[in-house]
Design goal:
It contains nine helices and ten strands. By secondary structure, it is an alpha/beta fold. It starts with 5 loop residues before the first strand and ends with a helix.
């Protein structure tokens, strides 16, 4: 990995990616696609986050609305009720952990940043609610820009691309430029290709094969493939509970490609896969 990869968080705190880091998933929801990520309520969310951190996660991503294909949207007010108390208690208990919140609602972002979050993980790449950029810039926070062509409830309705790698790269380049125009520094941006979001298995595999094509965007790259349907489709596994080995293979591949972090359900196993791959370099 390029030892110079880093991101600037709130209060100008610098987080360096000396190795591929693990971002543990905590979904304060009842309907996320993998049951092992669901932690509905403050105590359950705290327990899951504590487990991730004990297993080596230096980043935690908290979600209050499922973004699985076909998921029904949740109001911003309901999302805030779910997520803000979790952010506050994790900020108090774990002041050094990077806290990311998975939301595309600007008002949710404002509330969680006030509650102590460091970063917003926007699956829309600042397109669903463009005012999100101002909220993040005003707080001096970091952002993960992800690609998706549509909202979760419709994104898998016959996804089509002429050249998926070129089109996703172009989208991310445009949204990086947009974020910078709104006052977010390039050193405050991570990118995510959006595996599984408005893409067929063929599209997902093409993006993964060509992950180094995104290096020229100059931002740390997040791998977000944990237990997703692309693994199930390739290996014939309908249950996400069976997709850990496929996830580990992709994490090792991402580590070899210099990706900065992996957003995962199983921190210990993925961290060991990444470190073993890095030991071979």
């Amino acid at each position: 990995m390029n030892s110079e990869q880093k991101i600037r968080l709130r209060n100008n705190r610098i987080f360096a990616f000396e190795h591929m880091e693990m971002m543990g998933i905590v979904n304060v929801t009842e309907d996320s696609f993998f049951a092992g990520s669901r932690a509905f309520g403050i105590e359950a969310a705290l327990a899951l986050a504590q487990r991730h951190i004990a297993e080596g996660a230096r980043m935690i991503d908290i979600g209050g609305e499922s973004s699985r294909p076909g998921a029904a949207p949740v109001s911003s007010s309901r999302e805030r009720e779910r997520v803000c108390p979790v952010v506050r208690i994790l900020r108090e208990r774990f002041p050094d952990i990077v806290l990311s919140v998975d939301t595309y609602h600007a008002e949710t972002a404002r509330a969680v940043l006030e509650s102590g979050a460091d970063m917003i993980n926007d699956i829309s790449g600042l397109t669903f609610e463009p005012e999100m950029a101002e909220v993040i810039a005003e707080a001096g926070a970091a952002v993960i820009l992800m690609h998706t062509p549509a909202r979760p409830d419709t994104m898998q309705d016959s996804p089509h691309y002429g050249d998926v790698v070129r089109e996703v790269h172009g989208f991310l380049a445009r949204q990086i430029a947009f974020a910078r125009e709104k006052g977010i520094g390039r050193d405050q941006i991570m990118i995510d290709m959006g595996i599984g979001f408005g893409k067929s298995t063929r599209h997902n595999l093409s993006l993964l094969r060509n992950v180094r094509c995104f290096d020229d965007l100059g931002c740390p790259h997040l791998l977000a493939v944990s237990r997703k349907s692309v693994i199930g489709n390739v290996l014939g596994l309908t249950d996400p509970a069976d997709r850990l080995p496929g996830t580990l293979a992709l994490t090792a591949y991402g580590a070899a490609a210099g990706m900065a972090a992996a957003r995962v359900h199983d921190v210990k196993a993925n961290l060991e896969a990444a470190r073993m791959r890095e030991a071979l370099e």
